[in-house]
Amino acid sequence: MHKLRWLLGISAVTALTACPPQYPKCESDQHCKEKGEVCVQGQCVECATGDQCKPGFVCEANKCVPKPECSGEAEGCGPNEKCSQGKCVVTKTVVTKVEGSCATTEDCPSGQECKAGKCAALPPPAVACTFDAVHFDFNEYGLASDVQSTLGKIADCIKKQNLRFTLEGHADERGTEEYNMVLSQKRAASVRKYLVDLGVTAGSLDTVGYGENKPAMAGSGESAWAANRRVEFKKR
Fold first, then answer.
1. Which of 45, 57, 87, 97 sits between 20 and 30 A of 80, alpha carbons compared?
2. Helix intervals (H) in the chain
3. What 3-state DSSP class applies to 135?
4. pLDDT the model gives residue 23
5. DSSP per-residue codes, 150-169
6. Range of the structural domain that residue 207 is part of
7. Closest CA to 216 of 184, 193, 189, 178
8. 139, 183 contact by CB (below 8 A)
9. Is residue 218 part of a domain?
10. Residue 180's beta-bridge partner residues?
11. Between the CA of residue 180 and those of 1, 164, 194, 214, 216, what are the distances in Å?
12. Handedness of CA 51, 52, 53, 55 (dihedral sign)
């Protein structure tokens, strides 16, 4: 009887010893082999060291994770990069400046502006278009140099804006009315010819002479006479 009990006890112990622990518990790596894992402190885990991970991975907290690009401040990173959570991130954009290139006009030398990424000369300032009367010397219909300069600017304005004018010629009170009428017409014609020579379309300019009949300034004297010897521009 005692021998039977002893045999049953041995059988029970043997049965208990032969039964492996239930996953994820383990006693050796053999108990975790089916899952491709290893036994660490009685638990089946993915890894214990980096050697148990595939290339490009490291073992952290018993799990294989991708190997970080960097460590520390910037170890393993390139210029102008820093290490953030194991990855290299750019700290600033480096722009290699090509001579003459620009991002804003502030990048360009004085007198230039930034256009399409390149420094270019500023356009000349716009000239205000004025059409003030031009004046003549006594008994003259030829154009003085200052009048020619003024007409050059007027010609540019007429061409750019496609304007049309009547050129009104005038004379001072000295001389006969008939003579002054002819003189005023010659003055208007002189101005028209000069503008046409500068490229103004002939059909955009008409002329008329008023002689002494429409003075700009009343009275006799050099101030009034000088003011009245003129050609005026009347838009049409």
1. 57
2. 2-18, 145-161, 177-197, 222-228
3. strand
4. 87
5. HHHHHHHHHHHHT--EEEEE
6. 134-235
7. 184
8. yes
9. yes
10. none
11. 164, 26, 21, 12, 15
12. positive
What does the pLDDT read at residue 219?
Answer: 92
Tally the domains of the chain.
1
Residue 23 or residue 180, greater confidence: 180
**204 located within any domain:** yes
Q: How far apart are CA 98 and CA 117, in angstroms?
A: 10
Alpha carbon distance 87, 74 (integer Å):
9
What are the CA-CA distances from residue 20 to residues 15, 23, 57, 72 (Å)? 10, 9, 31, 44
The answer to whether residue 228 is domain-embedded is: yes
Whole-number Cα distances in Å, 75 to 55, 56, 64, 69, 88:
20, 17, 22, 9, 9
Nearest to 164 by CA among 208, 134, 201, 129: 201
Question: How many CA atoms within 13 Å lie on the side-chain side of 31?
Answer: 18
* Secondary structure letter of residue 44 according to DSSP: E
Structure tokens at 25: 């518990």
